């Protein structure tokens, strides 16, 4: 099952049985609004503070995903979940009532790729029949932790992105457990940390793009393919600036992503109408886009095979205040339309 230097090819591809997403008002007003399962008009989700709101969002998305697959909580053996907050407090408080053994993950905005990868490995290895992958972010909690208080009203440069208020959850089951044409995880290419010295926290696309380039290159090498192998190569949240860097870097290596590349951060918002500058970001960006757009298109047969590549900027308030650079990481997940399942 090991493929090349870093990848895994699953002999019996785990199935994405069901998925669901919850998002905030701004996301509901964007291009994917009608595809999101639940759009909450109150960004506090009826809670007392932003952190509690993100926790509520996680629990709601998890229950929706399991409900879509007619799966009870006790039938899910392990939970792989994460968010952007210190000590993963959105996840730990949000998933406690699910009563599912939990692995807390921090891959920054790449967390949904990491969660899906580990969920698939666990199922394919025979350690679980069903697992649950979750990732979330919230605009207000991210601004509060990483940037400025909302009331400060600071000016944002064009290269900055807007953190998505949203959560995506997907139930991953063993081969043959899904319905016909349910998406399957055919393989993964875990990324390694790449640090080219970018220090601008308002330009995370530039920090993450080199990591995305490395993972795409590694995926091509390990599986013996090129960009034509995929209907779409979908990065997480490089935004407008990072996407241009990605395509320019790969073009220098002889790979053209024109017409193939998509970025979740550019799909979830209408940048001109919604003033999000470079696009969307956050763990919820790729998670919501996966559940609202990517998986439905695969299930419908519009896309047969995609490389889903959430990207993460591995910074913290501590490292930034110490003047450190921003390492990036990107995890690749090969998702295909299932064939011949029950």
Output the keywords.
342 residues, alpha/beta, Peroxisomal Thiolase, Chain A, domain 1, 2 domains, seven-stranded mixed sheet, six-stranded mixed sheet, 11 helices, 34% helix
Number of strands: 17
Mean pLDDT: 91
Helix % is 25-40%
Order of helices and strands: EEEHEHEHEHEHEEEHEHEHHEHEEHEE
**Termini Cα gap:** 24 Å
Cα-based radius of gyration, to the nearest Å: 18 Å
The CATH architecture of the largest domain: 3-Layer(aba) Sandwich
Strand order of the largest sheet: 1-2-10-17-14-11-12
Number of domains: 2
Structural class: alpha/beta
The CATH superfamily of the largest domain is identified as Stage V sporulation protein AD
Overall 3D form: globular
CATH level 3 topology of the largest domain: Peroxisomal Thiolase, Chain A, domain 1
Count of separate DSSP helical elements: 11
Please give the CATH class of the largest domain: Alpha Beta
Query: Low-confidence parts, pLDDT < 50 over ≥5 residues?
Result: none
Percentage of residues in strands = 15-25%
> Sheet bearing the most strands, described?
7 strands, mixed
Question: What kind of oligomer do you see?
Answer: single chain
Describe the structure.
By secondary structure, this protein is an alpha/beta fold. It folds into two domains: 2-173, Peroxisomal Thiolase, Chain A, domain 1 (3-Layer(aba) Sandwich), CATH 3.40.47.40; 183-337, Stage V sporulation protein AD (Peroxisomal Thiolase, Chain A, domain 1). Helices cover 34% and strands 22% of the residues. The chain is built from eleven helices and 17 strands. It has helices spanning 25-28, 50-68, 89-94, 111-124, 139-146, 204-223, 239-252, 264-267, 271-274, 283-300, 317-321; strands at 2-3, 7-9, 15-23, 38-39, 78-82, 102-104, 130-137, 162-163, 166-173, 183-189, 232-235, 261-263, 280-281, 305-309, 311-313, 328-330, 332-337. A seven-stranded mixed sheet has the order 1-2-10-17-14-11-12. The protein has a six-stranded mixed sheet with strand order 4-3-9-7-5-6, with helices on both faces.
